[in-house]
Amino acid sequence: MNTRDTYIPKSENQGAKREFVSYIKGGIASLVLTLAAFGLVAFDMVSGLGALAALGGLAIVQIVIQFRYFLHIDLQKSHRDDLQLILFTGLIVSLMIGGTLWILFDQHARM
Amino acid sequence: MNWLGILEWHDIVFLRAWQHPSSSELVAAGAGGIVVLGALAALLLITAKHWWRPLWRDWLTSLDHKKIGIMYIVLATVMLARGIIEANVMRLQQLLAVDAPGYLSHEHFAQLFSTHGTIMIFFVAMPLLTGIINFVMPLQIGARDVSFPLLNAVSLALTAAGAALLMVSLVIGKFSTGGWSGYPSFTEKPFSPGAGVDYWIWALTPASIGSTLTGLNFAVTIYKQRAPGMDLFRMPLFCWVSLCTSILMIFAMAPLTLATLMLALDRYAGFHFFTNAAGGDVMNYANLFWLFGHPEVYILILPAFGIWSEVFSTFSGKTLYGYTSLVYATMAIAVLSFTVWLHHFFTMGQSADVNAAFGMATMLIGVPTGVKVYDWLLTMVFGRIRFRVPMLYANYFLLTFVLGGVTGVLLANPGVDFSVHNSLFLVAHFHNMLIPGTLFAMFAGFHFWFPKAMGFRLHEGLGQLAFWLLAPGFLLAFFPLYALGLMGGMRRMAVWSDPSFTPWLAAAMLGAMLILAGLCVLALQLVVSIRQREALAVPVGDPWDGRSLEWAGPAPPFEWNFPVPPEVRSRDAFNDMKRDGRAHSAPERYHDIVMPKNSAVAPLLGLGAAICGFAVTWHIWWLTIASLLGLMAVTVARSFVTNVEKTIPADEVERMHRAWLDRASATPAIPRRLEATTDNRGKAEVPGT
Amino acid sequence: MTDHHHPGLNLGHTDRSTHAAAEEMIFGFWIFLMSDMVLFALLFATYAAMSVHGVAGGPAPADLFELKSALYQTLLLLTSSFTFGMASLALKYRKDTGRLLFWMGVTFLLGAGFLVLEARDWVKMVTEHNAPPQRSGFLSIYYLLTGTHFAHVSAGMIWMAVMAVQLAVFGNDGPVKLRLMRLALFWHMLDVVWIGIFTFVILLGVAP
Asked: Which residue range forms the structural domain that includes residue C188?
């Protein structure tokens, strides 16, 4: 069981320099996305639902980037168990957040 | 500074009864007396029998999943006794309190239903199912232990800490009167100023953290520790339900921890999460609580479904009908259980659309559950059915659970729910699911796997007698409540004014007494079985002609479960081994086995958590900080211990395994008709070999 | 048997036996993190409702949050996530512990800077804006959400300090590596959560 062979994909085995570059990519992309989101608000470029869509979009992209480059999650190369777990968590989290907002805003609207 | 926080002498139950000797206080003092005397008696017995050393060395510090499982069950049994006695005390009050005051104060009655619910859910059902999964699941998948044995022990210790706090609350102070769900605004400081709600919060918190860690541990074990050839779709159904239950535990406990944390912040620090004023949102408590509470319902019932599947298949002598559909039904139930929580508060004022959506999702759960019922029925068709004790419970379950399920579908309709919300109809419904569903499944599993755990069978006749007390007992205790609910009887009432309730309440009282009597017979059965353990012994380990791997080894199992990981070629792995002659055979080579060493970390953390909970409840801040620092110190210190494993040499493994093999080959195999006799030494006759 | 990798840094050929032991350990820790994410998700959901419904005549998000301070906190935490990545590379590719300890030290300081700035925000809110958590439902959940994150960061820093001692005592051996790999996941995840706080609490709160 625990003695399974330890082949891992090339992307995890390409030496210090390439892995370093990968962290740099993730770091720079996150920095750019953070500053972009900050700029949108600081310079009053978005408002209302547009702000929610734009900022939410940027946040999701940044989360995906950090999952990819810092947490090494990759749809093709990650272990299936880990991916299933992430997808299931995504499902549960969206059910819980979506349901909570639906219920609480609906109740509030009727008070 | 007050070194004892807000604790005062008259918080002790005996002094309270001395000062105000009402019947209610005297009952409370009696309960407190039972706790104190019971604890003293246990201490004396352990001391007199010189059991301290074996208790510490073989049990409390053990990281063996089988022993941890058994300790969970012992804990649950103690708490079950309290829960059932409380139920009888409440039944008597309700019977006596028709147009009369009864013998309990309203506040005392409210404490009773709050502790009864909290205990039965968190400290009976949860530890029972966790204990049984702990014992059975690693054996069924051919693993040596769970993935994280120390974490397993810590989970148990945290659960025990919560239970300890509940027991202490019988002697010092009063418990919450807010019900097992602890709804604000009632549980906010202005309406519940005492320490009761805090007891409730800090008893739940360690237990729910323990459950989260248990779920994590089981899920990793099932994913990563299966024996060679044990594909997911070759696992016994009980392992599938264990996996789904674990996933529910991982995701569903967080909302509870958050809800109680927010309530604690409101109570201790004046926050405004659930207050009526200053922008608090009391509905969010119901939302968060049931985000936990509904998956919790399925945490309680899915393991039961697993036990029933094993029981129907084994005692029908047939492979499980519709295995794949049962797996998918289990998964569907697990996912759907996260989509229905609002049906617990249909009446809270959201619009009809919201209610309709959640009502439909709720009814949907009936579909996979129905699939399961048909699969179990069809498992029995053309089977050679043997009515051993577990099979009696199983058939009783089929009849009553379907009735309970139908009342559930009724309640899923928001229109119906409005008229019976918070009535005894609801109380009848969920007891109808949880007693024949969960509790009787645990009893069935207890009878089924006890011989594996202890090496001897339980007395069959007394087991059947207990069943014949519990079966009508449940019907009498709870079916009248359906009627009372429809007649307008609300839940949690300490007194009544309608004399037409009396006959129904009397029937329910009789039922509760029968259940208590059944519990006593179960206790007697245990004593008798221990005394007759030589005659009832099944050392070869397969008393029921079992089908899955837990029956492949001796009873009780080796500490390391399997000398070498078993090779699995199909579902019903052990059944096939028996038929193609691979059962009871020696491996080609034995190897050294590495096992975790005992550790005192878990009992220390449990003790720390219990002290911490007590200190926070009574605002004893120095002790809170000291115990938190202690918890941290133990954790950090453990991470510096490097010598955590022991090696069992291959020679010893071989010697013990061969001794058992010799015994197995010398033991005659018995046909199924002798199963319940003392001829059954745990070796099953295999037809056609 | 499997050519798939686990979350976070994979040791791979640099330490085959520890890599083999990591799969199960990391999977367990990853489950814990997912369960922790559910906790944060519910905090966010509650915040989304109470920041709208629970202001109770008190200060609203737009009256309180300072964009600049939040940006500095974000940059500190993002940089610390990156520097922990550098520590992970040192863990994987270097036998000596010097560079590893250096990057952990940098991460610790960045984390400490984050905590100081956040605590300063709170003090300001309480003293200058009269906005303690007891003022309104919105403020209660604001402090609980950011406070839970703050507590996680603090726990991560205590963990880091313990690991520095372990590195000194045991060197860069198998169990220590496994613990550092889990700490890395924990630390990176805290930055992921902070993206949510920065975006949905601060930026959306201030946006018109």
From this structure: 12-206
